[in-house]
Amino acid sequence: MRKRLFAHVPYLQMQAHLPFILERRVNPEIFLSGEALDALDPAELAATAGVLRGEGLSCTIHSPFMDLNPGSLERLLRDATMHRFEQVLDAAEILRPEVMVFHPGFDRWRYGEATNLWLDLSVVAWRRVLDRVRGSGTVIAVENIFEEEPSTLKALFEAVDDPQFRHCFDVGHWNLFRKVGMEQWFEALGGWIAEVHIHDNSGTRDDHAPPGEGAIDFEQFFSLMERHAPDAAYTIEAHSRAHLESSLEVLKPYLGN
User: Fold this and answer.
1) Measured distance CA(131)–CA(133) in Å, rounded
2) What is the 3-state secondary structure (H, E, C) of 67-116?
3) How many CB atoms within 10 Å of residue 161?
4) What tens digit of pLDDT does each residue of 151-174 get?
5) Is the pTM here over 0.90, yes or no?
């Protein structure tokens, strides 16, 4: 079965990569950084959206994340985070993405015994985000970053309890920080997965290498995906066109593309 395939494209490089995207029929996951959002021309964004739709392509959005934290215990940081989130939600009204990926902002070293407070503050933020996309069909997906095991994200999904609030499983990040196996992660969160980020590494740095060039067992990964989340969006997070080309070739047997 042919999978819904996307590829990471920074918005500031979108025009340079658009001919390749159209030629290869690759749906973009458009990364809107804070810098991109501050410089955004709505008319230009609408034109890009029109080209994609005219070619029968869809998109997802990767939201800004650097130094942002919707569950921060510092109000000013929460306010800054929500400012960026509102900006990217404005862009989403033009792009109409299938999924919007956000980072959770949690790590156990910073929060420790304050995890429950972080969770309570996060729930408020995500409900505001969900109010903005209600009725649009866009799914909000929270990605694992520094999570060593799935309990904090599971608690977040259970607390928000909304069908449009799901999980983006980043297999590369899992491999870097994991203290549980992939199967245990899927047993806990597989039912919430709406999107996955695909890239490889050897467990020591976030290489974003093509599958097969690191230590991740992609046979197991795709088997678990078929069992738990067969309808998810698959996004290749390559950071160069050469790595994207390699990834597309390696993944053909798995994605049917």
Assistant:
1) 6
2) CCCCCCCCHHHHHHHHHHHHHHHHHHHHHCCCEEEECCCCCHHHHHHHHH
3) 8
4) 999 999 999 999 999 999 999 999
5) yes
